[in-house]
Amino acid sequence: MSHQPDSQDGAPPANRPLQVLAGVLLAIPCLALIPVGWYSRRSPELGGFPFFVWYQMLWVFLCAGFTYSAYVVVKRARPHRPMARNERGDA
Amino acid sequence: MITPHTLAVVHAAADPSRPNTGVNGVALTVLIVIFVIVAVMGFMAARWRRASSMESLEEWGLGGRSFGTWVTWFLLGGDLYTAYTFVAVPAAMFATGAVAGFFAVPYTIVAYPIIFFFMSRLWSVSHRRGYVTSADFVRGRYGSRGLSLAIAVTGFIATMPYIALQLVGIQAVLEVAGIGGSGNWFAKDLPLLIAFAVLAAYTYTSGLRAPAIIAFVKDALIYLVIVVAVIYLPTKVGGWGHIFDAANTKMQTANKVTGKPNGSILVGPKQQWAYVTLAFGSALALFMYPHSITASLSAKSRNTIRRNAAILPAYSFLLALLALLGWVASAAKTTPIGADGKPNAQLVIPQLFEDQFPSWFAGIAFAAIAVGALVPAAIMSIAAANTFTRNIYKEWLRPDATVEHEAKVSKIASLVVKIFAVGFVLTMDKQNAINLQLLGGIWILQTFPAIVFGLYTRWFHRWALLIGWAVAMVYGTWTAYGVANPATKVAHFGGSTADIPIIGKLGYIAFTALIINIVVSAVLTVVLERFVPRGADETIVADYFADEDDPRVSAYDPVPYDDADLGGGSPKAST
């Protein structure tokens, strides 16, 4: 059963710059956790917590913020386009 | 990873709290009452969002793909943060420090941006094509039975020791509560057998709906216990500053066997590569496990997954606090002694709770860990059973199996998997389960290129991916075999880090194997493309962007592959 390429057999249109922005938002938390040599130290302490510990715990919240922002951006970058009913795979 | 000899040092130096004080009646009663409540909820879950029939993998194995943001959040959280996490991460912090334990924090932070990237695509294509497992996707995408089997077997084998480790978590609680652990083997293991029999029964009847409901209780208990512990305990043992100093002093004390310090509360220059590769390697591997994929595919829409990527870090914060409890235990001079009279770091968190809390609250904490074992054990056994049914039984043994027949096979397979896990824990050394789990992490990461790259590109050749996988599996297993741990006197499979070739630094074996996997797959793709035909791709581009209201092939496709001659490797004609 081969299918005929139809008008919708392709990716829905997307706003490229916004997609790149979402990618950057997702990459930031990952990049922030790579330089272990830099953040693996005790000072400056915060309420008795070594920098090593509170820096990483801070990134839990920042990561949630960046990921949520990426969610808002990707929804705008590529709004969902419903599939046509006649498309291959329609039951 | 865990060094009992460290504990011997502490034991001699410190004023031990009250280790192994016999049966803690109040705590045990609380534990049993909560367990019974959870069991009743598990059985009643079959009625929740009830479909017309439970007799399909779509309903039994994926909860009808009906879970919204919050249910998915609890389910994924209940799935990924297991009882073993609650036992092992603080134990590693307690015994050897930041590199072995705290890497779990960056690991669970970077996991979510990573899954945000690809999981919504896997959801869409699975929703459209009726895929239940990642091997289903690989089968449809590359038209390769061999590659699909490799992915299925890897997932299945990597999950088994993970289920066994959940039992180790329950055992730790029972041992500290004063039952299990000693006496004859029957009395010792009976509580564990009862717990798992009840779990098996409600998983059988309710499928994925059971852990989805129980996950609420699990998380409520765990959040309660950890928040109370983190607020209350530091004031009791002299504040956070003192806790970090005490932990550091303890770990800097030379180990009696190796003559070197056991660890540090920071990451030393020699271990930075290990820390980063452990964090990123584990994060990439996390959503390759069948149980993570099962929980994700049970979500009702594409955006449910993405929203979850933004709210799941709440668990990472919890995990960080939990990890720090390992150092709180150092400062509190907790002395975890097993029922056999030997020091056992795995018992440090239950022991800390028993020593420092009133009995009734210790009971709640024990229940949190025990229920924390039941949720992931249920999801893992369902995921392993789905993988077996779809990608081994139906694919290779009974291609004509009906939807009802598949559901039946999967239910039985979920029982067999659990029986196997119980047998494993009762007959073999616990260390074997831990070693195999480390190995499972190395193996499961090797399915990453076929699954995740496949979601974006068909550039990789199916045979190149299969050979890349095989080379990486051999490299990873062989390298892990060569890792000895002098402190625990383990000759093989003593840890998950080894020297990275070329760079010469200590790194996570799974990560090195993944790089080898990708390089081999890429090089062979260029070569094989000229000689060996590609398989047929049954997916279309639009599949990767579908959402809940889009038309589907069917909710479940009993004959998912419309090409009959895949074994011969000839590409399907396409226009």
UniProtKB/TrEMBL annotation, chain A:
The chain crosses the membrane at residues 20-40, 52-74. The keyword Transmembrane helix applies. Keywords: Membrane, Transmembrane, Transmembrane helix. Pfam families: DUF3311 (PF11755). This is DUF3311 domain-containing protein. The lineage of its organism: Bacteria, Bacillati, Actinomycetota, Actinomycetes, Micrococcales.
From TrEMBL, chain B:
CDD domains: SLC5sbd. One of its GO terms (cellular component) is plasma membrane. This is SSS family solute:Na+ symporter. GO terms for molecular function: transmembrane transporter activity. Residues 550-575 are annotated as: Disordered. Keywords: Membrane, Transmembrane, Transmembrane helix, Transport. It is found in: Membrane. The keyword Repressor does not apply. It comes from Allobranchiibius huperziae. The keyword Transport applies. The chain crosses the membrane at residues 26-46, 67-87, 93-119, 147-165, 185-205, 212-233, 272-289, 310-329, 360-388, 409-428, 434-456, 463-484, 506-528. InterPro entries: Na/Glc_symporter_sf, Na/solute_symporter, Sodium:Solute_Symporter. The lineage of its organism: Bacteria, Bacillati, Actinomycetota, Actinomycetes, Micrococcales. It is a multi-pass membrane protein. It holds the Pfam family SSF. Belongs to the sodium:solute symporter (SSF) (TC 2.A.21) family. Residues 566-575 have a biased composition (Gly residues).
